Amino acid sequence: MLEFTTAQIALGQVAVDKTAALGLLGARLVEDGLVAEGYLAGLQAREAQGSTYLGQGIAIPHGTPQTRDQVFATGVRLMQFPAGVDWGDGQMVYLAIAIAARSDEHLRLLQQLTRALGEADLADALRGAQSADALLQLLQGASPEVLLDERSIGLGVSADDFDDLLWQGARLLRRAECVDASFSARLQQKEPLLLGEGLWLLSCDQSVRAPGLAFVTPQQPLRHLGQPLNGLFCLASHGDAQHALLDRLCTLLIEGRGQELLRATAVNGVLALLGGAVPDDWPSARIALANPHGLHARPAKILAQLAKEFDGEVRVRVADSAGTPVSVKSLSKLLSLGARRGQVLEFSVEPAIAEALPLLLKAVEDGLGEEVEALTPLAPLPQELDEADIVPVMPVAGAIIQGVAAASGIANGPAHVQLQQAFDYPLRGESPAVERQHLRAALERVRADIDELIQRSDVTAIREIFITHQEMLADPGLAEEVEVRLRQGESAPAAWLAVIDSAARQQESLQDTLLAERAADLRDVGRRVLMQLCGISETPEPQQPYVLVMAEVGPSDVARLDPARVAGILTARGGATAHSAIVARALGIPAVVGAGDGVLLIASGTPLLLDGQRGRVTVDPAIDVLAHALAEREQRVQRQQAADARRLEPAITRDGHAVEVFANIGESAGIDRIVEQGAEGVGLLRTELIFMAHPQLPDEATQEAEYRRVLDGLAGRPLVVRTLDVGGDKPLPYWPIAKEENPFLGVRGIRLTLQRPKVMESQLRALLRAAGDRPLRIMFPMVGQIEEWREARRMVDRLLEEIPVADLQVGIMIEVPSAALLAPVLAAEVDFFSVGTNDLTQYTLAIDRGHPSLSAQADGLHPAVLSLIDMTVRAAHAHGKWVGVCGELAADAQAVPLLVGLDVDELSVAARSIAEVKAQVRALSIEQARGLARQALALGSAAEVRALVEMH
Ligand code: PEP
Ligand code: MG
């Protein structure tokens, strides 16, 4: 994407007129290799069609579509003309930004630029800027938008006095994440300003994260300092950001329209008056934009000129977007919409100039001075398809249902289908005091219940989940929001559900798998409280061992179960990484999740056979099928016992080929237990988990202590450490990363750490210092380009001069197909490869590894993934380097023979799988495994590969 940098800026330029200025700019673009000489004619032709003056002393000369073929590379060059250049019509330009673009990339730049310009005039500052940095800062130092929307308005709130009202206003700002918790206390210390008509203003710039204006009115009339208190503005002020908004407010009051604010019964009315939204009674109409390059400067200018002919407000927004309407009379605002061809513009005009509306639509339809080709409407879908149209089918006897394998083991028993009960409660409460009391009692009962579960559970994973539930219940933010609703007259269940639902939705909307799962926890604990409030109790469990069938099992549902009675768990929704799956695994209950809504139609009592390892459920199995499965279960138990007994021995195939079996870990604690479980080393230390366990970036000494503890515990066994792998779907709470459309394809892993070399350096130093003469292997995640590897390696080499390590190897993870395809080149430079099959599979098959319905298809045994592993191993061995596999595939019973057959040297798995994987290796012959692997590589699908392995 186009961006401004200081290198593009030339200060102090002089041009007698626009033609001379264009000549200078054109020459600079040519000189820097961005365009051919013919582009200058394009710049001139474009100006002849219409001036590229943008406003605030800035012009944005660019070529015509006909001269795009003169562009070699997209880019911009900026020239400052302190004496000014007349750009036509007396419009003086002090900064000209020449754009060379082959496509419509410059629209983005314009949008960025016009947003940055804000409402204050920058012309003088641009003209006087003394350095490229200062100029850049002017372009980038945009005042952030002041938050003013439905979240920051509270009309008719329950408040007994000024302080109460202030607290309500501050709470809205806090909820919108404009301010910190201490803001209300700070605001309280400020002098309130009476604006007139009972409206007051309080402003504070401390504890402010982003500027915002809250407006609250009390339910009943109040007085403060002997004056009426009809409404209070609470301003979280931030630099100059709020000037324009305060200006609008003052104008409104000067015009004597303050009462209109107080009379507004709906939030929209207030927003309209303060300029944030369009009033309901303004006529509006929509039209699709057909201009080939969107609403760029020239058509936008024509539109703005047309709007200026009317004596009233004209606004426009991109329909179905989150953007607020902007004034059509402002060219920079119009450009800031970044509207593209095909997007629908929604115009609204003041009722007094309703006649403007059809004229504006006509102008857009006619192309705003450009030739436009009509948009072809998309053929309507034969019928609207949504999830409701997918009718679940009741599985018949003998049917095999494929779901996601969540916890291994074979279970059989009658189905116990638990459907969610409907909650029935009044929306309005008796009184805030009574409802508050109900809620307190319900919360206390749920807390006591959870306490008991924590005491009862000896599994750490389960205890931690319940401790999180307790923290969720104690969250003051939730309590505050419920309190506000209770004061507004809602019943306790209505208020509670609304707040939980909104908090959970917010987490879900962040498109982060982990946060989405925490949202499931929030809903789970929220439902417990709701059940208490509505007097609903659990359906009694059957007496004999059964298979629990539910839409989605909340962690607390699972943890409440008696494993002696619950033979297995089957859910319609959810994925293998959900908390419920973790709990099921911890309790040793076989589970299949995400099997589809059809399972909810199974009648309670229907016999089910569930295979948690294959993710399969057989409905009402035939006797021989059942007998076969039970025999297999017995064999598995015996196999596990035999494997456990030999867990400390090496894994050597029948014909003498050794494979190392290492452990994957995410914390330094418990390393002794891992060695005791048979680990011959650590094959993957996920250091981000160590970072996540700290409230802030752990310093070098803290990290060193963590790594040292692992190395001490390993007592001379190798430690393979992966450098920090955050970003994308793995956030670190204290490391803000811009939200991305496709986080898995965004700034994550090494891409992120190379952008923050200090963090990476400090981690590497800590590792090197901790190592001493112990075997340390360092690898980098998500490497996709050779330069990434080289830069990282250079950093290690530099640090090694300072902190020598006797036994160090440096390698990369193979997680991105490009790295596997480049393995022959990379292998000459690295010391080893470790294949991260979780990511390699998602990127090879283009299936999001956390996708709720597709992730079951993201099978690492797909021949395409196996081929990439094969290429990697061949390349590494040709250079005498070793290859490990540290993704989940390494512990997959059907994958082990193939990975060994592909000549992988090391398998790194969860500690509990070590004994079993070793046992599997011992049962193999390397020659047969190699033959099997070659056959698998020639197949067409993961299912065929699995069938092949099953046959052997
Ligand atoms: C992998 O991608 O296989 C891997 C081991 O890394 P993670 O699962 O931590 O992304
Ligand atoms: Mg990975």
UniProtKB/TrEMBL annotation:
GO terms for molecular function: phosphoenolpyruvate-protein phosphotransferase activity. PROSITE patterns: PEP_ENZYMES_2, PEP_ENZYMES_PHOS_SITE, PTS_EIIA_TYPE_2, PTS_EIIA_TYPE_2_HIS, PTS_HPR_DOM. Its cofactor is Mg(2+). It is an enzyme of class 2 (transferase). InterPro entries: HPr-like (IPR000032), HPr-like_sf (IPR035895), PEP-util_enz_mobile_dom (IPR008279), PEP-utilizing_PTS_enzyme (IPR050499), PEP_util_AS (IPR018274), PEP_util_C (IPR000121), PEP_util_CS (IPR023151), Phosphohistidine_dom_sf (IPR036637). It holds the Pfam family PTS_EIIA_2. It is found in: Cytoplasm. Coiled coil: none annotated. Its main location: cytoplasm. Residues 2-142 form the PTS EIIA type-2 domain. It comes from the Bacteria. SUPFAM superfamilies: Enzyme I of the PEP:sugar phosphotransferase system HPr-binding (sub)domain, HPr-like, Phoshotransferase/anion transport protein, Phosphoenolpyruvate/pyruvate domain, Phosphohistidine domain. It catalyses: L-histidyl-[protein] + phosphoenolpyruvate = N(pros)-phospho-L-histidyl-[protein] + pyruvate. Keywords: Cytoplasm, Kinase, Magnesium, Metal-binding, Phosphoprotein, Phosphotransferase system, Sugar transport, Transferase, Transport. Its EC number is 2.7.3.9. Residues 282-371 form the HPr domain. Belongs to the PEP-utilizing enzyme family. This is phosphoenolpyruvate--protein phosphotransferase. It comes from Pseudomonas ulcerans.
